[in-house]
Amino acid sequence: MAAKKTMTLNLTDAEMRVLDELCEKKDLSKTAVLRQALRLYQLIENRVDKGDKLFFEDEKTKEKAEVMML
Amino acid sequence: MTITVSPIFLFNAERSEPEAAELWDGITDQQLGDWEGEWLPELFKAVQKLHRAGVERRHWPQSRHWNWRKKTEALQGMLAHPGFSIVCNGMTQGMMIVDTTTKRCRIEEQKGKNLVYVEFVENAPWNRPELAQPPLYRGIGSILVRAAIALSQEEEFKGRIGLHSLPQANSFYANTCGMSDLGIDPDHQDLRYFEMTPEQAEAFIAKGNQP
Amino acid sequence: MKIEITKEWCLRMAEIEANAEIGAGLYALDPVFDGETMPANETNEEPSIAFGRFVRLMRRDRGLTLEKLAEDTDVEIAELVEIEDDTHHKPELRTVYQLANYFKVPRSNLLQVAGLTAPRDNRLIDEAVRFAARSESVAVLTPEERAALEAFVAVLSEEK
Description:
The structure holds 3 protein chains of 3 kinds.
Chain A: H1 13-26, H2 30-50, E1 55-57, E2 64-66
Chain B: E1 5-12, E2 17-24, H1 29-52, H2 68-75, E3 83-88, E4 91-99, E5 116-123, E6 137-138, H3 140-154, E7 161-165, H4 170-176, E8 180-185, E9 191-196, H5 198-209
Parallel strand pairs in B: 5-7
Antiparallel strand pairs in B: 1-2, 1-6, 2-3, 3-4, 4-5, 7-9, 8-9
Chain C: H1 7-17, E1 24-25, H2 45-61, H3 66-73, H4 77-85, H5 93-103, H6 107-113, H7 122-134, H8 143-156
């Protein structure tokens, strides 16, 4: 975790809006939100690559719906 | 893996004096080697001693089942799971792995907010009171908690951290660290869940700055 | 990341922390007891024999060395040796869990047989005694041993 590099992102208006909403909701800067997104993405890709499945579980019915297909 | 080393101090209880040490922001092969070559044999010996002395199993050191190599290999390279280690006198004295991404706060006032969750943290066997009389180095727990807080602040989580304490460490997290005790968690093998607010984090840091 | 901590802070906290235990983490404890609650435990000689015998025969039936079984179940080989050879040995909780998963038998039943939890099922315990009595040598499973093992596994596999 040494020096950080700066990068320019090209996002659509819709994407920027979503980013702003997430920042607002989570009380995090844009950078922080995107770093979280990257981490989550890597984690998920890692598990899916291993053959694990990612599910959402409906809180009421306990039904599982697969989120990502390989 | 590039490691950033931060200078720290431990208290050498044997010599009754401070000793310079290092806080590393990662867990490397060196740590795994130390764990396998030094921690495990010590742990084994201590467990054997307890076994022979007829000590009830529930008083045995509680973290001897961890397999660091497996754990770290599974989490290797994952941005969401940084590790920290403390090295002193050429030997790993403490290790910690955290989760910066998948956990959220439970304390009502900060419910749902991001936090740095301590997946596991352990002291070297010779630093632990139930295994060594007297324990060699002091201060490892506090420094690692401080590291978790620092990371939390760096992540913009304002110092919020959380963890499931082993029963014998409940007092440390409740009293020394001043964390909120959210009770026994049935989903986590009945370990007690502790969480820290930004204010508690500040207070913890301030504690060490008092003369 | 660089973390700035003063020497004074380190030493002050070392003083406050003193000789505290600091361990934390999910994988630390044996699942059932954690030092705060402990199951009632009566050591019963026969069930322990059955447990060691069960492990040994299941292992041999799969053509595994102790080493391989240790590797596959992530259990210390020293522990497996004690389990199979030392009838007085009380296995670790996690070990029984790992073996139950590996041999695909219900954990709760195997825990009783291993003598780690209070016996709840008398029939299971009786069968364990019977199994211990019937199974003996170290050669390839004889038809009798196989029959005994299969019968015991059937009982062990019953979920209540």
